[in-house]
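Why should sequence recovery work at all? Because a backbone constrains its sequence more than one might expect. Tight turns favour small or flexible residues, buried strands favour hydrophobic ones, and helices have their own preferences. The token representation captures these environments compactly. In the example below, the structure is given first.
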């Protein structure tokens, strides 16, 4: 009997607050793989927070660094689970780079749920920090999701909030890898 293909790399994409980091950490433990968070990698290499990078250099600079750090991470040997930033797939041909290197899983979360998850931390998120209230946050999230959906939907794998458990994603990945 043939053995299951081994997961080499997994990329998690989705909106801010979708649970990429939380699920990614759980999957990394389950698969006994290192976990990486792309925003944390950028912060470590830049020596400053994402908010500070946005404030000092602007979004265009951040997106260039994000793409460069993604490519550097991908060039490293070894297996891993990587949580991207919410906008990562939408800039600098990053989605092509992700798809070429391993399975990509899109975590689909309704914007009302995203808002509930990130409302308290919205001020620390550069693209959400200027919003006055929950309604404005939901409106911005709706607008952003509408712009990003065409990139997110290119992921060969997706799951909803209810399906975003380690066990469910492991089953999804097992089916996907057996067909690859």
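From this structural description, the recovered sequence reads:
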């Amino acid at each position: 009997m043939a053995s299951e293909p081994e997961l080499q790399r997994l990329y998690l994409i989705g909106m801010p607050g979708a649970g990429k980091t939380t699920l990614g950490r759980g999957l990394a433990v389950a698969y006994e793989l290192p976990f990486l968070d792309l925003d944390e990698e950028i912060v470590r290499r830049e020596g400053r927070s994402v908010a500070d990078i946005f404030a000092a250099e602007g979004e265009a600079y951040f997106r260039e660094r994000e793409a460069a750090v993604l490519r550097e991470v991908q060039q490293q040997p070894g297996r891993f689970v990587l949580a991207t930033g919410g906008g990562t797939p939408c800039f600098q041909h990053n989605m092509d780079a992700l798809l070429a290197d391993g399975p990509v899983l899109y975590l689909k979360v309704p914007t009302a749920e995203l808002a509930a998850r990130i409302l308290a931390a919205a001020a620390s998120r550069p693209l959400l920090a200027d919003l006055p209230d929950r309604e404005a946050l939901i409106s911005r999230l709706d607008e952003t999701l509408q712009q990003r959906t065409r990139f997110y939907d290119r992921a060969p794998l997706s799951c909803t909030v209810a399906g975003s458990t380690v066990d469910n994603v492991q089953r999804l990945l097992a089916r996907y890898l057996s067909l690859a």
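A few observations help interpret the result. The chain has a mean pLDDT of 91.
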